[in-house]
């Protein structure tokens, strides 16, 4: 079995969105062996830290929160699409159409059974890049039309300075979940089984998560 851990490591000096201090996680030693028989650490962090799932409430005032999304949503067949070679900073519908021209085993690369993960130059960098590659709204519309299960990207945002958060809203209104902050550097383009385990927190707009990919030939199926 080939397994890829595609999650970011939570640590105090990790990359955070736009390098904002308020988004940086803090590990605080609550007790150590000098003042207690046990060692305990407190974690303070934004729910959008590292690898995380965005819920509709993140951008939609009447959007659903975490308890309305079951764990089965995040265990799916998926396809990793490699866009590390594109010069443009945005993935457009045209880029996705080019991928569709190639077929895998006679089936479309992108379809309603799959989550689509976008591998870009973002995976080659550890520090936050203000010019990170993002998903342009035409590409979001293309994926929504394909009725995919979910969309993931190796950036801490799926869009970059887009007025009105159109990419987020289009996908989430269509019932397509979003996972940001993936690490796909070592993952070849192709089909996989995606397993995402978000923290079980009620009533929030985002969930930190651990995400792994299994080779699609393992025999496991969602």
**Can you tell me the residue ranges where pLDDT is under 50 for at least 5 consecutive residues?**
none
Molecular shape: globular
Radius of gyration: 18 Å
Beta-strand content estimate: 25-35%
Kindly report the oligomeric state of this protein: single chain
**CATH fold description:** Glucose Oxidase, domain 1
Percent of residues in helices comes to 10-25%
Which architecture would the CATH scheme give at its second level?
3-Layer(bba) Sandwich
Biggest β-sheet description: 7 strands, mixed, barrel
**Strand segment count:** 12
Summed over residues and divided by their number, the pLDDT gives a mean of 92
Order of helices and strands: EEEEEEHEEHEHEEE
Number of domains: 1
Describe the secondary-structure layout.
Elements: E1 3-5, E2 26-31, E3 40-44, E4 52-54, E5 75-82, E6 90-91, H1 93-100, E7 114-119, E8 134-135, H2 137-146, E9 150-153, H3 166-173, E10 177-180, E11 190-198, E12 206-215
Parallel strand pairs: 5-7, 6-8, 7-9, 9-10
Antiparallel strand pairs: 1-12, 2-3, 4-10, 4-12, 5-11, 11-12
